[in-house]
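Hi R.,

Here's the chain you asked about this morning:
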Amino acid sequence: MPLSNEKIAELIKKRDAPRRTGTGGRRKFNINDRSYQAWFALHHELHNPDTGDPAFCDNPNCVDPRDKTHGQSVVDLDGKKVCRFCFLEGWLTTNPEQTTLETTDALSA
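And here is the predicted structure, written out as tokens:
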């Protein structure tokens, strides 16, 4: 059964129609989401890509109980390297309701 001119025109129109794109890309990362799903969604580094040195958590009070002689698996949050343990503990989270940091002097007065 041969195709009619109308059917050919319809198929050409369908072929040349603009392709449907994605739904808008990835959602912006919420820095306060400290779930395992958020941890595994981030890009992990085992070494510094510039120097090749092992990567370490930037938290001076890192809570990772494992041996840190050979580096850690870290993610980059706004320029700071964070290990999984510090990430889940909530290091570097922000509280939008807290606008100023009250010191103990201001609280005791």
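One quick note: Strands lie at 44-45, 74-77, 80-83.

Cheers,
M.
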